[in-house]
Design a protein that fits this description.
The chain is α+β, with helices and mostly antiparallel strands. It contains four helices and three strands; from the N terminus they run E-H-E-E-H-H-H. The protein has one domain: Collagenase (Catalytic Domain) (3-Layer(aba) Sandwich).
Length: 122
């Protein structure tokens, strides 16, 4: 675990497809609906405060998209939402699967490891 992460707080918000599309356009310049967005408070873990609680950032989830994806992925809705939450949190921690194939592989490995710890397996 990253040093200090046990002191971190984050918000999780569930929004409509229209709202997440508007957020995606405003903050990423992408005019499309998505499943999850993350808004980190820090550029990297090196910036986390040394003491006391701190806000890690915000994770915004589109439950409508999660429902559709759960069917595509053969998962329960709960497991799809867990995956989106873990995915969003990893973005808050600085992981970015869009940087390179290597970064994507590392993020997917981390997702699987965290989900395994959370659920005891799929």
């Amino acid at each position: 675990m990253l040093l200090g992460l046990q002191r971190a707080e984050l918000s999780v918000t569930f929004v409509s497809p229209g709202k997440i599309k508007a957020l995606n356009l405003k903050y990423r310049g992408i005019d499309a609906e998505t499943d999850v967005l993350s808004f980190p408070m820090y550029e990297s873990a090196r910036e986390f405060p040394a003491e006391g609680p701190f806000i890690l950032g915000d994770v915004v989830i589109n439950p409508s998209r999660a429902f559709l994806q759960s069917k595509e992925h053969g998962l329960s809705l709960a497991n799809e939402v867990r995956w989106l939450l873990v995915h969003g949190i990893l973005h808050l921690l600085g992981y970015d699967h869009e940087r390179s194939r290597y970064a994507e592989r590392k993020m997917r490995e981390k997702e699987r490891g965290l989900l395994e710890k959370l659920t005891g397996g799929w």
